[in-house]
From TrEMBL, chain B:
Pathway: Cell wall biogenesis; peptidoglycan biosynthesis
Stretch list, region Disordered: 1-39
EC number: 6.3.5.13
Name of this chain's protein: Lipid II isoglutaminyl synthase (glutamine-hydrolyzing) subunit MurT
Subunit architecture: Forms a heterodimer with GatD.
Organism whose genome encodes this protein: Actinocrinis puniceicyclus
Catalysed reaction equations from the record: beta-D-GlcNAc-(1->4)-Mur2Ac(oyl-L-Ala-gamma-D-Glu-L-Lys-D-Ala-D-Ala)-di-trans,octa-cis-undecaprenyl diphosphate + ATP = beta-D-GlcNAc-(1->4)-Mur2Ac(oyl-L-Ala-gamma-D-O-P-Glu-L-Lys-D-Ala-D-Ala)-di-trans,octa-cis-undecaprenyl diphosphate + ADP; beta-D-GlcNAc-(1->4)-Mur2Ac(oyl-L-Ala-gamma-D-O-P-Glu-L-Lys-D-Ala-D-Ala)-di-trans,octa-cis-undecaprenyl diphosphate + NH4(+) = beta-D-GlcNAc-(1->4)-Mur2Ac(oyl-L-Ala-D-isoglutaminyl-L-Lys-D-Ala-D-Ala)-di-trans,octa-cis-undecaprenyl diphosphate + phosphate + H(+); beta-D-GlcNAc-(1->4)-Mur2Ac(oyl-L-Ala-gamma-D-Glu-L-Lys-D-Ala-D-Ala)-di-trans,octa-cis-undecaprenyl diphosphate + L-glutamine + ATP + H2O = beta-D-GlcNAc-(1->4)-Mur2Ac(oyl-L-Ala-D-isoglutaminyl-L-Lys-D-Ala-D-Ala)-di-trans,octa-cis-undecaprenyl diphosphate + L-glutamate + ADP + phosphate + H(+)
Domain annotation Mur ligase central: ranges: 99-209
UniProt: Zn(2+) binding residues: 235, 238, 251, 254
Stated family: Belongs to the MurCDEF family. MurT subfamily.
Enzyme active site: 374
Pfam families xref list: Mur_ligase_M, MurT_C
GO BP, one annotated term: regulation of cell shape
A molecular function GO annotation: carbon-nitrogen ligase activity on lipid II
């Protein structure tokens, strides 16, 4: 085990999964399971908290996850999160956040709802989302932002599956998570996928994204425990899966 | 008429929508009355359409492209868009729709109604309008039609066939990259069935189904259970959070709640509206999900006067449905073939393999068009249920499954194909669980 990693002890790493009852359409539980698995390998005692949409979001989590869903659950989630200060306070003190698809849009300033038009998000990162004209469905490959690294190495290409109609515009305060080689990411023609700023990352990729990009999982864990070394887990199957998925789309 | 199980013709490719043209004619010559529209009564256009459909189907079969029914049906429907209505006019129609269990329940209802006379059915799961039309054209005389319907097409098929009864079993996430969101489907059912003259036989344990049936005058509620609840936390009407205590559920924000059932699946038996218990232990189809299917089928059959004891006795003859639940010998092993297409289906399937001795489980997952090309759903399935069992993994997306099983703490080995996996497995029984196209490929391989 590398330096800086806490010995297993009473202080658990808390992984908070926000609103699985609304935003868990695309195997989003997978991101929580991957983080739990790798955090345990890093020597953490892990506590996972699934927060249903009639419950308060705890402020003291280490990592927050929010997933994908269609218009209606996204709107309901936004209404409830805007009334709940938990996530905003946690993000304000530097907790790690991974937001996927509809959840990514909610982290921004505004998003678009078919029924009600432009609605406010939480404004935790400098992005705004709109309704695109085409549905983006299929495999995505994006070269990860070279500024992102784990254990001194870049994250490599990000691979995932997208299924959305959103387009997300990035403001000055964020960088894209990746530059798209295959697929759409932040909308048809956008050329980028996702965004990151500080310890918040958003993406349109599911698959789920951390199962196909374990380096991104380690990056998020490093935001939480301060240890930038890769998790000591058997990566054989992850790497074979990545290779196969990249080859499948000729990337 | 014989109560012997109906033999299904086997073989053919891995095409998604096959119709078995021999099944529907099993009862021909049984001396039944011609309740359906007599061929001579069909308008000229419909006659041409049926003939063209048959020719096209025969050509398709000859070309080795499956059993040809769907293609024939498609051609016929193009020539006469009202053909399905014409082919079902005069028959007593029952429709069956759901995310899971619709092929099996269709078969069980058909078996039960054969107590009354010949039944035509799309027995092998060709459940879109073309496949249904082709199946209806194979037997023009059967008085009863029991029709499996794809969830998306239920309102359209209900309009065409004016059914006497519609069985609604469950709705959950399935093939999200190509199908609509689950609640959207429920909305489509609700709108499409509003004002229907059919009696709806619906599962009161599935909130989406309850809401979907909410605008229909006559509903028979069946407590058929709901193992998978992850798509039913949010009230389909108002978005409130659903509260559950035991079997009861209600919305915290509006008045949607579990209706009182008149038919109940109660452990190993069903209970009818008079409180009579009918044991289901004699069913050859295994598991809780099939007891639920049988309970719903008995409720449907009773609408037509078939006593539940008699209905269940007939359902007990069904051993396999389109290859599902079949046990076949192959390379010195007995393979029990189980189909699981989505998280709810996998959950029910784990119920079947649990408790058995620790014989191996072989999993095969594809992500071809008919399966949905997104494998994210694997992470909704609780594979920890397979801990302690030797697990063999094959299929086009075996690497996705390998990562999933590693994180679930399951011991597994990955193999290139079925033969390689079996070479690594002991002789004896192996439970084989596969998703849609993987299942079809396995059936073809082992000759089931």
């Amino acid at each position: 085990m590398s330096q800086g990693r806490p010995a297993p002890g009473p202080s658990a790493l808390r992984i908070v999964w926000i609103y699985p009852d609304l935003l868990s359409t695309y195997g989003d539980q997978g991101n929580a399971l991957i983080l739990e698995y790798r955090a345990a390998a890093r020597g953490h005692r892990v506590e996972r908290v699934d927060v249903r949409s009639d419950q308060a979001v705890p402020e003291q989590g280490d990592i927050y996850l929010i997933g994908g869903g269609e218009d209606r659950p996204q709107r309901l989630a936004a209404e409830r999160l805007r009334r709940d200060p938990g996530l905003t306070r946690a993000a304000g003190r530097g907790a790690a956040v991974l937001a996927v698809c509809a959840g990514f849009q909610l982290m921004g300033h505004t998003f678009y709802d078919e029924q009600e038009g432009v609605l406010p998000g939480l404004g935790l990162i400098d992005v705004t989302s709109h309704r695109g004209s085409v549905r983006c469905v299929g495999e995505v490959v994006a070269d990860s932002d070279p500024q992102l690294a784990v254990g001194g190495a870049g994250l490599g290409p990000l691979t995932g599956f997208e299924n959305h109609m959103g387009t997300t515009l990035l403001g000055q305060g964020v960088r894209p998570l990746g530059t798209v080689r295959v697929g759409n990411g932040n909308g048809a023609g956008a050329g980028t996928d996702g965004a990151h700023a500080g310890t918040i990352a958003g993406t349109y990729l599911h698959g789920p994204v951390l199962a196909r990009n374990p380096a991104l999982a380690d990056l998020i864990l490093s935001w939480a425990d301060g240890d930038s070394a890769p998790s000591p887990v058997d990566e054989r199957w992850h790497q074979r899966l990545r290779k196969e998925r990249l080859a499948a789309v000729g990337a | 008429m014989s109560a012997a199980p109906v033999a299904v013709r086997r073989g053919g490719g891995a095409e998604r929508h096959r119709v078995d043209t021999t099944v529907a004619s099993q009862d021909e010559g049984a001396g039944h009355g011609a309740a359906a529209q007599d061929p001579a009564d069909l308008p000229a256009r419909a006659k041409v359409a049926v003939a063209a459909g048959k020719v096209t189907g025969a050509v398709s079969r000859a070309a080795g492209r499956g059993s040809g029914g769907v293609i024939g049906g498609r051609v016929a429907l193009r020539l006469d868009p009202r053909l399905l209505a014409r082919l079902t006019a005069g028959r007593t129609c029952v429709l069956v729709s759901a995310t899971n269990g619709k092929t099996t329940t269709t078969r069980l209802i058909a078996e039960a109604l054969r107590a009354l006379g010949p039944v035509v059915s799309n027995a092998l799961g060709a459940n879109m309008p073309a496949g249904i039309t082709a199946a209806m054209a194979t037997d023009r005389d059967a008085r009863y039609a029991v029709i499996e319907v794809d969830e998306k097409y239920l309102p359209a098929v209900a309009t065409q066939t004016t059914p006497s009864a519609i069985a609604l079993l469950n709705l959950s996430r399935d093939q999200l990259d190509r199908a609509a969101e689950t609640r959207m489907l429920a909305q489509r059912w609700r709108d499409g069935l509003a004002g229907s003259s059919a009696t709806i036989v619906a599962n009161c344990d599935d909130p989406l189904v309850v809401w979907a049936a909410g605008q229909v005058e006559r509903v028979v509620w069946v407590a058929a259970g709901q193992a998978w609840q992850e798509d039913a936390w949010s009230c389909p009407r108002c978005g409130g959070v659903l509260q559950r205590t035991g079997q009861e559920w209600h919305c915290a924000a509006c008045d949607l709640r579990r209706p009182q059932p008149t038919w109940v699946l109660d452990g190993e038996a069903l209970r009818d509206p008079y409180g009579v218990r009918v044991p289901l232990g004699g069913l050859r189809l295994p598991g809780r999900a099939n007891r639920a299917n049988a309970t719903t089928a008995a409720a449907v059959a009773s609408l037509f006067g078939v006593d539940p004891h008699r209905a269940v006795a007939r359902m007990e003859q069904v051993a396999a449905v389109a290859g599902r639940y079949d046990t076949v010998s192959y390379r010195g092993r007995q393979l029990r073939l189980l189909l699981a297409k989505n998280p709810a289906g996998w959950l029910e399937t784990f119920d079947l393999v649990a408790g058995a001795d620790a014989h191996p489980v072989l999993l095969s997952v594809n992500a071809l068009g008919a399966d949905g090309t997104d494998t994210s759903w694997l992470w909704d399935v609780d594979y920890t249920r397979l801990r302690g069992r030797p697990v063999l993994v094959i299929g086009q997306r075996r690497l996705d499954l390998a990562v999933r099983l590693q994180v679930a703490g399951v011991d597994f080995t990955v193999h290139d194909d079925l033969d390689a996996a079996l070479a690594a497995a002991p002789e004896g029984l192996i439970d084989v669980i596969a998703n849609y196209t993987a299942f079809q490929q396995l059936r073809q391989k082992v000759g089931a």
